[in-house]
Write a structure and sequence with these properties.
This protein has 13 helices and 12 strands. With 360 residues, the chain is an alpha/beta fold. Strands 2-1-3-4-5-11 form a 6-stranded parallel beta sheet, with helices on both faces. The radius of gyration is 25 Å and the shape is elongated.
Length: 360
Amino acid sequence: MVLLAAMRSLPRKITLRDVAKSANVSVAVASRVLGNHGYVSEEKRQKVRIAAEKLGYSPNIVARSLKTASTSCLGIVIADITTNFFTLLVRGADDVGRQNGYHLIVCNSDEDPEKEKVHLEELWNRKVDGIILCPTEGNLHRLRMFTRSGMPVVLVDRRLPQLDAVSITVDNRLGAFEGVTHLLEHGYRRVAIMKGLPGIASLEERFLGYTQALKRAGIARDPQLVRYGELNAEISRTRAGELLELRNRPDAFFISCEAMTVGTLTAIQERGLRIPQDVGVVAFDDPLWASILRPPLTTVRQPSYSVGTIAAQTLISQIAGKTGGLKEDITLRPELVVRGSCREQSPSSAALPHGATLLR
């Protein structure tokens, strides 16, 4: 009797039916809103969310997964959601996920292995059906445990050769090679590179493309023109400023990623230098604002949306057990988008060293 009385005194768990009743909608509508699938009008969606928050409703994801052997959730851990590359990548993955009945849980690592670890553990505990990951190199052991236990993992933007997982990447070396070659073809000779953080595979590949373009043109790489730094505007502004204060300053910049572009352009503007007359600029990544600058910015555009869609399609196929040819890494080609941040014409044919060639 005492036990029964104690049980009656325990608070009753709020159910989906309670939320639906409070919001004055059907259980099916409440399920669609809280499961984030199917169409529901914005008015009803708001009512359900307010009711769920007011009642303290918490869906039992684990119980649902036991019934269906699936949570219908995919996790995605990316480096920086504020950049156009990752924004479009997530959009592509989300579109494919929704078309196949999956909800996408988005996590941001900020290139921090410890933060990445927390996100991976949370996704594991939530029993997501698979994970798309832009990896740091700090959680290889944990990722191996995931894949060995049967958790499908697809990598984007970077490879981890030590991990048995498909990667969807862009040809970073080629993109950088073509971007730097474009600067050299337009008469620039002291091309600096804003390299970003050391150790990130995609940025190292872009540095290799930069080096190869200089070598093909017969130009020795000057270590003074290489700048590392955090991937943010303020630090890149400082690093670019250091370059522009050199006695023999660069006459052009190749910027390795969007996060460093704003800071570099700010440093150029602060010194009263004109683009492209005084300094040429080509940036890897193609942010939405690149075309509205004056002059508009020449960029290396990544097929970001396609990286996301292919990653999601690959992951969903693996979840379904349809591996087939999906064990092969996929590398997509970037596109040089020529705008106005380089001189319109090459100077004279004598600008290149004798015998030098610029190969595409």
